[in-house]
Amino acid sequence: MDCRLGCGACCIAPSISSAIPGMENGKAAGLRCVQLNEQNLCKLFGKPERPKVCSDFKPCPDLCATTDQQALANIIELENLT
């Protein structure tokens, strides 16, 4: 599955414990990543400085659903369960 351009749910909902350029201590769940631009696209996509956890995340139909809002809700629920 390909990402829906402009969704950004995976850059907002989960906590990330590894360093992100501009967020050296990672980010808390629900906090928008500083590398997410105004169009909800990752400024680091395809670059070597993109955190491994972000590069390793792969979209899937069950998690990403059919809307950006549902994807956000699903990832928030998964974050809360872990």
Beta-strand share of residues = under 5%
Main structural class: mainly alpha
- Return residue spans where pLDDT drops below 50 for at least 5 consecutive residues: none
From the structure provided, what is the oligomeric state, counting identical versus distinct chains? single chain
Spatial extent as radius of gyration: 12 Å
- Element order, helices and strands? HHH
The major β-sheet equals: none
* Terminal residue distance: 24 Å
Q: What overall geometry do the principal axes of the alpha carbons give? A: globular
* Helix percent band: 25-40%
Number of helical regions: 3
Tell how many strands the DSSP assignment holds: 0
Mean pLDDT: 95
What's the arrangement of secondary structure elements?
Layout lengths: L51 H5 L4 H4 L3 H14 L1
Structure keywords:
single chain, mainly alpha, 0% strand, 82 residues, 3 helices, globular, 28% helix
What does this entry show, briefly?
This protein is mainly α. It has helices spanning about 50-55, 60-65, 70-80.
Structure description:
The chain has 82 residues and is an all-alpha fold. The protein has helices spanning 52-56, 61-64, 68-81. The protein has 3 helices and no strands.
